[in-house]
Amino acid sequence: MNSMMHGKETETYASNTWLYSVESFPGTRLSGRHTEFLEYNGITILHPGNSWVRLEPYVRYRWTDFAHRGALPTEAAKKYAIKERLYADEIAARFVAIYGGMGVISMDESPEQNPELAAQLVEQAKVANRGWRVSVVRGFEALLKQYEPSGHGPLAIRTLAIFAEAATK
Description:
The chain is of the alpha+beta class. The chain has one domain (2-133). It has helices at residues 75-80, 88-99, 115-147, 154-168, and strands spanning 2-5, 8-11, 17-21, 38-40, 43-45, 51-55, 58-62, 82-86, 104-107.
């Protein structure tokens, strides 16, 4: 069974690849990540965070027959197009490779079928996410130390103002 949505055809089959993320994608505006998505090779996924999401395969066409394509894909244009398939397990592997440090993991079976393995993977994701958060804070602290000796610079002044405002509350 094929379905067509926004010019991209998706093939539905019994995909059993699941993706978990500690962080939500896009993040909240307060986190500063409100424009960050899970992206790979033109595929963008919105993830709510702290939940398992089932991945579906992705099929796209590279058009070679522009004379018959028109505004929407036609059967004549599809006949000559190069069909590119990306399976759910390949997509999940790339997302884990790119975003694994932030706590993104995948599982090749339903979390309901193997809750023990799902719980172990969730704990691994939380540990990885915690390490990523610590590295972000350490990077920010190292950046602050660059301005510490002189006490001047736009970042030092802004940061001191934020800390001073927080201390008065």
